[in-house]
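Sample pair:
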Amino acid sequence: MKPDVTGLKTFKRYQVAVSELAKAFNTTTAGEGLEWIPTEWSSDLMQRVEVERRIASFFPRFTMPSKTYEWPIRGTKPTVYIKNEVQSTSPTSYRAGILATGKSTFTAKGVAGLIGFSDESDEDSIIPVLPTAKSELVSAFVDAEESALINGDDSGSHRDADVTDSDDIKNLFDGLRFIANAKSGEHDMNGAVTMAGLIAMLKLADQYAADPTKGFFTTSTKNWYTMMTMTEVKTIDLWGPQAAYMKGALTGVLGRPLFPTAFIANNLNASGVYDGITTDNTGLLYVYPDGFKIGERRAITLEVDKDIRSGLMYVVATQRYDFQSMVPSADINVVFMYDITA
């Protein structure tokens, strides 16, 4: 018969030690470990997100104090008139100008990413599964954010015919392509990007393109390579040390940054949308980022859980945010160039 170990002095010391260890740190009690688990992950996640963000890094962000938040915006400036000299004790009042005002309404919308895997895979895999899941969620959230910022359309019937799922990230809010179309901020390039066409884009944006330090261009990777072959930018004699043929990249044009994105498609039609019929065109955006804001009700938050009944582990990332234009509706703070052969 095996001895009863519970009666041993060493077992009692073991019980005390385990009990004290449990009290010292756990993930369910506030002040005793609860705050450390999601916070540590989310902090590290946010650092990675900030590094990987591309287009989103240009836009101002703020923390929304409530689910719905109205941000006042300035409308047209009041008109100033000539005043007459006072010539009586009952002078005519000055002519009044109108101070036009407006607002942008932010409504936080939630997004989530989930990865599930078995505890055995985490133990047996050559590549650690948990850190890999975390890294993949970082990339997925960055990609989703950029896709929504460029291609978003929450009108209920997306302009691109390939967006059919109601929970597609492209339905989250109105993105840059949609806003450019709504503001009549589109320009037909008739097949190819030219320097004259780029200047026409800036002209369409008017005062929102006057300062070259406050705007950027972005286009599909395929068109980015094509733009390197434009006569004006490819050689040193015309473009200096930044010439595309010297650097192997075109990092800017007309004094503004230019960078590629995977989220301007190469299968658009000649009008700049996807219809599934004509699929050999792409596009290019000019954006004045200070004319927009991203409102966050919840920054990206990462949580880890395990279902001990099944041995499944879950990594979940969530975020609540919105994106809005911050200029009068008639002003063009984004321009989309379409009809560019991919």
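The first helix runs from residue 9 to 24.
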